[in-house]
Amino acid sequence: MHIHFIRMPRRLKALHIRQVSYLPLPNNSSQSPYNEGILFKSSRETTTFSQSQTLAASKKLSSFTLPAGNYEFAFEIPLKGKFIETITGPNHDYHSYQVYGVIERNWSKDFIVSQPIRIYKSFELEQDDIWLPTPALIENQWHEKVQYTVSIPDVNIPFGSTFPVEFWMAPMAKGLKLGAITIEVREKHNLKIAASAAYSAHCGVNFFTSAEEYTIFSERYDAGNYVMLGSELLNVEWRVEKTVCLPRGFEACTQSVDSKNINICHMLAFTIELHNENGSLSKIQGTFPINIFMSPRTISKNAVVHILDLQQFQADRNAGPPLYGNHIADLLLSENPHTYEYHAGGPTITPLDTSSVEYRELCSVPSYETAMNTTRAI
Prior knowledge:
The chain has 378 residues and is mainly beta. It contains four helices and 22 strands. One of its GO terms (molecular function) is protein-macromolecule adaptor activity.
């Protein structure tokens, strides 16, 4: 907590810091039950977490004097083991946290300032030394016309990152041509919030439910931007790789959530268009369930989201030791008194001190051949 410069001493009762989290609830002033999908169009908030801490106060007197000056107060508010993380996204603030700084005075109105903060749970995979990806693959044959495979490198996707989607197709029907490919990331919300006792008694409703769906990424790629293997007379294969860029704004995308009251899931959907020989259009459609999680690798201080290439990140994280030809080894010392000492990993060269005791002891050590011949003679 930071208090800007005070020009003159102030008589204060106490300084407090308070952290509160909110969950929106339907407005009980309505005379009819809420319909599916409009739960949060008109809402109020209920407190799900509240904790305060006194930063300064007098133990004996009802107030104390704060001299003129500039002040900073460090504070720490621990969270319980089980808590609801920040949940915000398209057209909603399902769960949010606010920190209040309160300057309490005896005979005047209190000074209150507030600042929103974001709190997220850590993802278990990120805590492991080795990230073992969970790739997803759809392999099928469509109406004996084309055999296809669609794959992604991992179903666990950090918020705001990019990842590739790879398509492989082998046409089995004559005259079949590849058309446009569409990729979407869909976000589905399902909420179930208990109604207040008064509202339940008045309207006979125990729970409010809401179901919403948003498309947070959509891209259509026209035909022609693909690699064709083979020839028209022999077997033909089509290979296409496209990149999905998740939104980097907290108002444009929500992380995946699975809790008692709030469930948010994500699906990667694709549509492959095929042009038949007779000119008609056919479509292959499918979906992948994916998990979008909050990561400190993409979210830094001040809620700045950085782009992360998922495939490159996994390669760097799981990289083994360097190849044999790429490592730098120590060079052996020779019998030349002007020998230099080479340090592995850098070009630093340090001349040896030939007058030192260590150098004379080193020179007195017999060579391998001398030691072996002496052993045989014994």
